[in-house]
Inverse folding.
């Protein structure tokens, strides 16, 4: 299969991007300044991320659709306010995670943002459940960019007036060059920011205007270090079909209202795990010193017993040290528990820590 | 002091008497990106030509550092362990990795001169 290019490919090239293939797309891993500078620029100013490879699934419908989607997602969609978003997951019957996603209630129905590598399979699964009852469109005509960091609100508001009044995890339709754009105040870096869904023909112009106002394109490399410092999961690494949301320590994303009643995919297992506990759980891990423990690094307890594995690990530029997360046996998941990480045949000390490594600065309530 | 030689694994080596100073090339640092971790061989240990003698890690991945000649490690550069970003800033001078008392001077003959290395680096990265 030929690798796909996003509508910003030319702009990435103009900005000297280094490309990698990711989920079937040619995506920028970094630009000339490099991952560390891009990471810091996002934390201190404003960075633009091309996430057009992600799926933008529009499902059209009303009350019936809400009921049907509640049979799939562990969310209280009935009481979700119009234009508000929730983080959730598509699970199998054993509560294994097919994908993690953001779902937003719109006037027309729902918009679901899906991971690029999972989107086709997600569509198939959702289609199986929903049948032909609702119009479902995986919109390939729209691009998706994120603008993240403390200066982003000011910069984006200069180009699209009114966005600064959005609350965290809510969105609305705006206009850019007579085009309808859907903007949510959200992101995946631990910074205040926005995600902008815009037709492909106008994304280049919008992005160039944001760059002119002082933002910069940031590659997938810095996106990874930013989200890891923020303690956020990456599907295919920290989440997969062998892990449940409870094991992934994401029970905050499961509606309490829905737990009491069950009846969503995977609810039996979720309820059982919430009541009985789990044997393994996702934790933050801080190596002592500078050693970097990457994905698949084995974790040992003080008696040299293998108790888990790292699922993401890198150097955190804002923390100025190594950061990691992984799954350990539940009894070793308490904060400050001393563990050892096997890197290149040697065991290095580390400790279990709370997430995030880097404190979030989301805008909670503007209004 | 002899001319600087280069290996196919992107190390440079400068011989002064029977002591060689070894580091990684600017080209290598450009390929790696931001270096955030460095591990060096132990002083007093022996290393064999083309064997592993250290590790560098960028935000993305870990890479081994090889020694282009055999010898005994007589010194290591703690400054790059404490601040690995120095390797990106000055790879072919102050950010050297380790010094070896070399075992066999003829091993130097297997390495490339600057022109050949530059050509090699250009071809392999294309």
């Amino acid at each position: 299969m030929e690798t796909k290019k996003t509508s910003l490919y030319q702009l990435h090239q103009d900005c000297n991007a280094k490309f990698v293939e990711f989920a079937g797309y040619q995506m920028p891993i970094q630009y000339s300044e490099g991952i560390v500078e891009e990471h810091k620029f996002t934390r201190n100013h404003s960075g633009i991320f091309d996430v057009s490879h992600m799926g933008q699934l529009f499902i059209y419908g009303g009350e019936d659709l809400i009921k049907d989607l509640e049979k799939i997602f562990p969310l209280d969609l009935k009481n979700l306010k119009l234009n508000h978003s929730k983080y959730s997951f598509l699970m199998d019957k054993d509560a294994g995670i097919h994908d993690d996603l953001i779902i937003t209630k719109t006037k027309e129905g729902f918009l679901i943002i899906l991971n690029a590598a999972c989107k086709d399979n997600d569509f198939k699964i959702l289609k199986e459940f929903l049948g032909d009852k609702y119009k479902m469109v995986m919109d390939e005509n729209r691009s998706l960019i994120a603008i993240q960091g403390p200066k982003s609100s000011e910069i984006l508001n200069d180009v699209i007036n009114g966005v600064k009044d959005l609350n965290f995890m809510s969105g609305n339709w705006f206009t850019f060059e007579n085009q309808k754009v859907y903007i949510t105040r959200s992101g995946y870096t631990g910074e205040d920011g926005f995600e902008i869904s815009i037709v492909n023909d106008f994304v280049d112009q919008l992005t160039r205007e944001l760059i002119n106002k002082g933002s910069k394109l940031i590659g997938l490399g810095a996106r990874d270090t930013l989200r890891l410092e923020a303690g956020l999961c990456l599907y295919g690494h920290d989440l997969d079909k062998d892990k449940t949301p409870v094991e992934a320590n994401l029970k905050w994303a499961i509606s309490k209202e829905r737990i009491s009643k069950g009846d969503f995919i995977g609810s039996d297992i979720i309820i059982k795990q919430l009541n009985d506990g789990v044997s393994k759980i996702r934790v933050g891990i801080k190596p002592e010193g500078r050693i970097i423990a990457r994905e698949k690094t084995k974790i040992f307890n003080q008696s040299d017993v293998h108790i888990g594995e790292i699922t993401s690990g890198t150097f955190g530029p804002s923390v100025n040290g190594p950061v990691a997360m992984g799954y350990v046996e539940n009894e070793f998941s308490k904060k400050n528990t001393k563990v050892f990480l096997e890197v290149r045949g040697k065991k290095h000390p580390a400790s279990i820590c709370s997430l995030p490594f880097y404190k979030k600065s989301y805008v909670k309530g503007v209004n | 002091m002899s001319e600087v030689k280069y290996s196919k694994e992107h190390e440079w080596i400068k011989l002064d008497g029977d002591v060689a100073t070894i580091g990684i090339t600017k080209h290598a640092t450009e390929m790696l990106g931001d270096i955030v971790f460095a591990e060096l061989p132990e002083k007093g240990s022996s290393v064999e030509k083309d064997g592993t003698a250290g590790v560098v890690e960028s935000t993305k991945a870990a890479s081994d550092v090889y020694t282009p000649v055999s010898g005994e490690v007589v010194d290591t550069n703690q400054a790059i362990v404490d601040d690995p970003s120095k390797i990106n800033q000055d790879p072919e001078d102050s950010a050297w990795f380790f010094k070896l008392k070399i075992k066999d001077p003829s091993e130097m003959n297997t390495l490339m001169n600057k022109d050949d290395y530059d050509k090699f680096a250009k071809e392999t990265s294309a």
Notes: Chain B has one domain: 5-125. The mean pLDDT of chain B is 94. The beta strands of chain B are 5-6, 11-16, 19-24, 35-39, 46-47, 52-58, 62-66, 71-76, 98-102.
